[in-house]
Structure formats: structure tokens, C-alpha cells
Specification:
single chain, 172 residues, alpha+beta
Length: 172
Amino acid sequence: MSKGRYSMKAVLGGVARLSAVIFLLGCAQSLYAQTYFDFTCSGCGGSTASGLLTTTLVSGNTYLVTALTGTQGGDAMTLLPPGGYAGNDNEVNSVPPYLDFAGLSFLVGTTDYNIYYSGGYFECNNVDDGICNGGGIPVTFALTPTPEAGTLVLFGSGLLVLAGVLRRKLFA
């Protein structure tokens, strides 16, 4: 072969590197698309609620909850849309206080709930009291950031690339 042509090995190596870059860029995009938080609420509906919030970044430390997977007292919770109950905005903060005055609303069975912050965390619902944003039952609410699968894939891929580079340098 002449010096001006690429070998098949070099071409295949370039295609493999390009594929890896495209894969990593896809992972990086999902890394910023969604953030997950584990949540717990003691006293919500007279029992404990817990689960996972799927969010998208609004600005700074504020995230919009786009999905909720969890249970309250063993019953499934369903996220209500912003404005769905008690003027909720479904925004959470990654630092305390985790909720604002508008709060986070969800449905359990036929009962609408809103958890909000007004100098403390409170819960109201459409059956027991219906008093929201200024009254309600005191509850304990907490959020914990959860690493997403895309972050772990991106980190693992980076370690593999680093191992490959080190192997080449050591055996060259």
C-alpha cells in the first residue's frame, strides 16, 4: 500500500472512535435532560409517602416535576399537572426548603393532595380539610438527589477510554 492510503485497520478504528463519541454525546444529553429525586413525606394523608420524582431543570436549584412514582400508605400516587389542585406549580428545589408556597400535588385514589412550604411543610387534601396555602396539616418532607443511569454509563465509558489510553501508552 502507498503512504497516501489508509489501512482497513485505521478506518475501522476511526469508525469505532466516532461511534463511541456519538454514544457518549447521547449519554451527555440525557444527563442534563432529567434529574431524579427520592422523596419521603411523613404524615401525608396520615401515613408515609415515598417514591421517585422525575424533574427537568427550570433555573438555578429549581426543578419542575414531570413524573412521580410512589406510594402513600401502600396506595399508588399519581402526579397532578401544575394548577391541578390548590394552585400547585409542582416545582421542587434541590436545597431546603424543597417546596414553595404553591407546592406539589398528587392524587391517591379519589383524594387530591398538595404538599407545600409556608415556614414549615404542610399538606392539605380535598377530603379532610380543603384548606391549602395558609392552613393544613404539618408534615415532614425530604428530597435526596438520585444518580441517573445516563450518568453512570457516561462515567463507566470514561473509565474504559482511560484504561484503553493507559494500556496503549504502557505497551507502546
